[in-house]
Automatic annotation (TrEMBL):
<dbReference type="Pfam" id="PF00169">
    <property type="entry name" value="PH"/>
</dbReference>
<feature type="domain" description="PH">
    <location>
        <begin position="7"/>
        <end position="112"/>
    </location>
</feature>
<feature type="domain" description="PH">
    <location>
        <begin position="191"/>
        <end position="289"/>
    </location>
</feature>
<dbReference type="InterPro" id="IPR011993">
    <property type="entry name" value="PH-like_dom_sf"/>
</dbReference>
<feature type="region of interest" description="Disordered">
    <location>
        <begin position="116"/>
        <end position="137"/>
    </location>
</feature>
<dbReference type="InterPro" id="IPR001849">
    <property type="entry name" value="PH_domain"/>
</dbReference>
<dbReference type="InterPro" id="IPR051707">
    <property type="entry name" value="PI-Interact_SigTrans_Reg"/>
</dbReference>
<protein>
    <submittedName>
        <fullName>Pleckstrin homology domain-containing family A member 1 isoform X3</fullName>
    </submittedName>
</protein>
């Protein structure tokens, strides 16, 4: 579902047909920023990408004339909608019907807000060309009017990133063509309760990496991807003290952050949306309750196991010795 991040931008994952009429949809992370008049997409959440990573694509909101359901236009693409931008139609896939409706609504609302006033379209000779925060290089553009919609095309093949470094699109290194989609992993011996991609913080380097998480009735583990058979780590639910929304999310500057607290470590995990975060918290908490019973923590479980041990030691006050009782039979010290 689209959500509002700390910068008051609407964000979320969608699949987009980047090459027109290819029929191939790739998973991307989208940011709708009405203040910047832009709808941009990245390989992943920029928080999880290396510093200075370039965006994959962008559209000015003023170029988008309409956003609508495209189920009839693309019957084979589930939850599909279309953005009309000049001569190009951008087809996108949402995660479900509610996700589709929400994206269509927020995009249509955004393009209504950002329609420029007639006076604003006139150039101001006294206003010098603006320089970017990091000294962006100015690129010349050609403006064409097609069907009443202004289409601006750069006349230079160079592009400049946020800190003024020239980028050659042809030499961009793509480590992967798209993010792995949320395909289910084959069930193991225990039935899988929930599975999907999240981003977790490393224990040593404190870097953030996308991992495929899988929860069953006894454990929660994470894999490098859903294609891997062996997990990178498995956390037994009996060792989990609690799972909750992270109270340090403001300090870490991470949206949708929750924590899995064990006796040895606290795992910080970032979901793709607030709904997904609450879904994981509910699923893990529910699995813990189902395993232990309501109101039983990890420490109370350990205490219960100690008390359930048939071998009980009793301190004898008269002799200062211990007598050990096993079942109904007792071995008492001689006086």
């Amino acid at each position: 579902m689209p959500y509002v991040d700390r910068q008051n931008r609407i964000c979320g994952f969608l699949d987009i047909e980047e090459n027109e009429n290819s029929g191939k949809f790739l998973r991307r992370y989208f940011i709708l920023d009405t203040r910047e008049d832009s709808f941009v997409w990245y390989m992943d959440n920029p928080q999880n990408l290396p510093s200075g990573s370039s965006r994959v694509g962008a559209i000015k909101l003023t170029y988008i004339s309409k956003v609508s359901d495209a189920t009839k236009l693309r019957p084979k693409a589930e939850f599909c909608f279309v953005m009309n931008a000049g001569m190009r139609k951008y087809f996108l896939q949402a995660n479900d019907q509610q996700d589709l409706v929400e994206w269509v609504n927020v995009l249509n609302k955004a393009i209504k807000i950002t329609v420029p006033k007639p006076l604003d379209s006139q150039p101001h000779p006294d206003n010098p060309s603006r320089q970017g925060e990091c000294g962006k290089k100015q690129v010349s553009y050609r403006t064409d009017i097609v069907g009443g919609v202004p289409i601006i095309t750069p006349t230079q093949k160079e592009e400049v990133n946020e800190c003024g470094e020239t980028i050659d699109r042809n030499n961009l290194k793509r480590s992967q063509s798209h993010l792995p989609y949320f395909t289910p992993k084959p069930p193991s011996d225990s039935a899988v309760i929930k599975a999907g991609y999240c981003v977790k913080q490393g224990a040593v380097m404190k870097n953030w990496k996308r991992r495929y998480f899988q929860l069953d009735e006894n454990t929660i583990g994470y894999f490098k991807s859903e294609l891997e058979k062996e997990p990178l780590r498995v956390i037994p639910l009996k060792e989990v003290h609690k799972v909750q929304e992270c109270k340090q999310s403001d300090i870490m500057m991470r949206d949708n952050l929750f924590e899995i607290v064990t006796s040895s470590r606290t795992f910080y995990v970032q979901a793709d949306s607030p709904e997904e975060m609450h879904s994981w918290i509910k699923a893990v908490s529910g699995a813990i309750v189902a395993q232990r019973g309501p109101g039983r923590s990890a420490s109370s479980m350990r205490q219960a196991r100690r008390l359930s041990n048939p071998c009980i030691q009793r301190y004898t006050s008269r002799t200062g010795e211990c007598s050990t009782y096993v079942g109904s039979h007792a071995h008492r010290p001689s006086y």
